[in-house]
Design brief:
CATH class of the largest domain: Alpha Beta
Number of strands: 17
Low-confidence stretches: none
Order of helices and strands: EEEHEHEHEHEEEEEEEHEHEHEEH
CATH superfamily of the largest domain: HUPs
Shape: globular
Number of helices: 8
Strand order of the largest sheet: 7-11-6-1-4-5-12
Structural class: alpha/beta
CATH architecture of the largest domain: 3-Layer(aba) Sandwich
CATH topology of the largest domain: Rossmann fold
Largest sheet: 7 strands, parallel
Mean pLDDT: 93
Length: 326
């Protein structure tokens, strides 16, 4: 492409989300011979995070720091983004397809009167064309899209495009841009987090998920132990959430989070099509269920027919032994 691409990174609790580095890798793949500029918004000192984006492949970074950017609001972040876009005038913009990305990018696209390709899972460069692959019909089919004119604007699904190796010998300018963030119609008074501590579910490389088969809130404890040993996160089907076994922040599926981890372990999940829509593109799927006819086995790479309360603790113990002997 040989032009300029802008990557909008995402900062949470003072740290960069991994999808920010994946977005840089996507931009570098599209624009191998051109310039990749990172943009970060927030409160406080963001210069070091700007350097981190450079270590992962960006050529330089622009940071906008303002007290009204401490917490995400679509209006505040859109003001910051538009100011950077007007300054940089990029040929393309890339961002992660996260809760923030899904909210912010349509607003920017509307103001720029631009098209937007959302939730891309793969990118191919074919001559002058950049071909984006994205799932449709709840992941049952895929479509390929090409921007024929105007701005190349896309969001990428986390865990699908590998970040580049970190290289702390890379250097580039980190510019601090002053933007007046004003007239906000939304004021964040307080944030109450319901997500579990530890690994972010949407970016987890390993997920251990429970369905109605866990039978109770206590039934998630063996799953939590297995997830901890694997360095992963715990998720749930809507059935488990509806039954009150866990919070809806853990829900994976058509009306919950869409995840694509390297390893997905489904425990006591029957495999309703709505749940499969949220996890069927996981790289390796392991299903544990007492019912050999459960639909989850149709998408699983490995299946274990058995009681999850017997199988999961055994798996946890064996993995602990393997790690101790490694």
């Amino acid at each position: 492409m040989g032009k300029k691409l802008l990557v909008i990174g995402e900062v949470r609790d003072g740290a960069l989300r991994n999808v920010s580095f994946e977005a840089v890798a996507a931009a570098r793949k599209i624009n191998e011979d051109g310039e990749v500029v990172a943009a970060l918004f927030g409160e406080g000192n963001l210069e070091q995070l700007g350097n981190e984006m450079i270590y992962y492949g960006a050529d330089r970074a622009v940071v906008v720091q303002h007290e009204n950017l401490k917490n995400y609001t679509s209006e505040g972040y859109a003001q910051a983004a538009m100011a950077v876009i007007e300054d940089e005038n990029p040929e393309g913009i890339i961002m992660g397809h996260t809760a923030q990305g899904k909210d912010l990018t349509p607003k920017i696209a509307s103001r720029l009167e631009s098209g937007l390709i959302s939730d891309a899972t793969d990118i191919e460069v074919d001559g002058d064309d950049v071909v984006f692959t994205r799932p449709i019909y709840s992941g049952k089919a895929f479509e390929k899209k090409v921007v024929t004119e105007g701005l190349l604007f896309a969001t990428i699904r986390p865990n699908n495009i590998a970040p580049l190796d970190r290289d702390d010998t890379r250097s580039g300018e980190v510019a601090v841009k002053d933007v007046e963030i004003k007239d906000l119609r939304t004021v964040i008074k307080d944030i109450i987090r319901k997500t579990t501590e530890g690994v972010d579910l949407s970016e987890a490389k390993v997920i251990v998920a429970g369905g109605r088969g866990v039978k109770s809130a206590d039934g998630f404890k063996p799953l939590e132990e297995l997830a901890e040993v694997l360095g992963g996160a715990v998720g749930a089907s809507r059935g488990a959430c509806d039954a009150g076994y866990c919070d809806y922040s853990l829900q994976i599926g058509q009306t919950g989070k869409v995840v694509t981890p390297d390893l997905y372990i489904a425990c006591g999940i029957s495999g309703a099509i709505q749940h499969l829509a949220g996890m069927s593109n996981s790289k390796v799927i392991v299903a544990i269920n007492k019912d050999p006819e459960a639909n989850i086995f149709n998408v699983a790479d490995y299946g274990i027919v058995g009681d999850l309360f017997e199988v999961v603790p055994k798996l946890t113990e064996e993995i602990k032994k393997l790690k101790e002997n490694a």
